[in-house]
From TrEMBL:
Molecular functions (GO terms): chondroitin-glucuronate 5-epimerase activity
GO cellular component, one term: membrane
Species classification: Eukaryota, Metazoa, Cnidaria, Anthozoa, Hexacorallia
Protein name per the record: Alginate lyase domain-containing protein
Gene3D superfamilies assigned to the protein according to its UniProt record, in alphabetical order: Chondroitin AC/alginate lyase (1.50.10.100)
Bilayer topology annotation: Multi-pass membrane protein
Highest taxon in the source lineage: Eukaryota
Keywords per UniProt: Glycoprotein, Isomerase, Membrane, Signal, Transmembrane, Transmembrane helix
Signal peptide: 1-24
Localization of this protein: Membrane
InterPro entries in the cross-refs: Chondroitin_lyas (IPR008929), Dermatan-Sulfate_Isomerase (IPR052447)
Length: 200
């Protein structure tokens, strides 16, 4: 598939750029560690509205984590459309980058990692072949992994990496799945995922 070649070329270029700049491994997806101070300043000034919304979401998650965390029981997790867990996790991870003093938020984020990696897969039982819910979880875990790498202990690093890598391998076995519904989204998450894990 042409798409696979395009991805390989992009990854190659990206790899060269990373080695060339010799920057820290993570974050490397949307910003690097050098950008974080600026992002934190912007969160207090020009981008306060966005930061406020992230903070509000984080406050909700801190109040009652169990309402947001993926259930560790796969039957429960898979019993309904489950993309909301990943969507919330992504927002929380960004908030944790912007406000590193909020240790409770970081603790909830660690619980998200832990719950996601404890599940055997991220599918919905009623539609096991549907990759879209998997993609939502995968984007979130891969992005959060990139954003919060320095806070993860070795155990969670390894498990998050392995689980994301396995999910993405399962996903790419059948390239025809890239056709049809949501294909732009699938290609985008594939890229996010590859870029996030590439440095390993
Ligand atoms: C999962 O789906 C299958 C068939 O689609 C059904 O037989 C089974 O009871 C479901 N499992 C759960 C835990 O809902
Ligand atoms: C990958 O696929 C295998 C078999 O097709 C399945 O047993 C496994 O749970 C899947 N892993 C993930 C992480 O989805």
């Amino acid at each position: 598939m042409i798409f696979n070649h395009v991805v390989k070329v992009i990854l190659l270029l990206y790899g060269i750029q990373i080695t060339h700049e010799k920057q820290a491994d993570h974050p490397n997806l949307y910003f690097s560690s050098r950008d974080i101070n600026r992002l934190r300043q912007q969160a207090q000034t020009t981008h306060r509205d966005i930061f406020f919304r992230l903070k509000e979401a984080a406050e909700e998650m801190k109040k009652k984590p169990s309402r947001f965390l993926p259930p560790r029981d796969w039957n429960k997790f898979a019993s309904r459309w489950n993309e909301d867990h990943g969507n919330n996790f992504g927002a929380l991870a960004m908030y944790c980058v912007l406000n590193e003093k909020d240790l409770l938020a970081r603790d909830v984020a660690m619980q998200f990692f832990d719950a996601f990696v404890s599940l055997p897969n991220w599918r919905v039982n009623a539609s096991m072949v549907d990759d879209v819910p998997v993609a939502h979880s995968l984007v979130a875990v891969a992005t959060a992994y990139d954003f919060m790498y320095e806070y993860l202990d070795d155990n969670l690093r390894t498990k998050s990496f392995k689980r994301s890598w396995m999910s993405q391998r399962n996903f790419t076995k059948d390239p025809s799945r890239f056709l049809g519904e949501h294909n732009t989204f699938k290609i985008t998450w594939q890229l996010i995922m590859s870029l996030s894990l590439l440095v390993h």
